[in-house]
Amino acid sequence: GAEGSTLMSYFSKNQIQALKPKITFSTLRDLQCPVLQSNELQGKPEESCSTEELFEWLGAVLNQVSLDNKSSSFLSTYCCPEPNTVVEKAFLCTITGFIIPEKIIQLLDQLCCYFSEPKLAYWLTLTVHGFADSPVSWRESEHGFHKGGENLYNFVIFRNLDYWLQMAVGAHDDCPP
Fold it and tell me: What GO terms fall under cellular component here (predicted)?
């Protein structure tokens, strides 16, 4: 109707376009990484770290929190869980924007192809964040912002193509099926 054409002319006049996702790459050098075993979700003392320890570590890395547990740090005294190993180079790619599920599946497929080449990584991760103040969440519930607006899931993919799927939602949200 008339409203639709008025809106269309407004948008075209003001040249409002869909935002393209923004992609940033960074290399993290000499990064302490938890040692993981795909079949040990709870971790084993002196052998591997648990899924919870990995999730916490990943949060620190993605937020660029120092992992060296300095008492002089006012920000964080967090340190990498044990056992861990130092990785000479880790690559971090961040894609910001509105990304449809099909693109996420495509990204997962491309990441899995990484293991078919003779690379040194034992595992890699793909984290998908919803916006903290997104109006929707999983299932039929509205997304409850309340405190932190948690709304994310994380794939951990291993060289043998086993994977872990971790999910985090706010206390007032429905959990996914």
Answer: multimeric ribonuclease P complex; ribonuclease MRP complex
Model confidence over 88-147: pLDDT tens digits?
Answer: 988 999 998 888 889 999 999 988 888 887 767 889 999 988 776 666 565 565 555 555
Q: Name every residue whose Cβ is closer than 8 Å to that of residue 61 and which is 6 or more positions away in sequence.
A: 28, 31, 67, 92
Q: Token pair 């043998």 is at which residue? A: 160
Q: Where are the beta strands (DSSP E) in 35-162?
A: 84-96, 123-129, 151-158
Give domain limits for the chain: 21-97, 100-176
pLDDT digits (tens, 9 = 90+) for 118-131: 767 889 999 988 77
Determine the Cα angle at 52 with ends 157 and 158, to 5°. Answer: 15
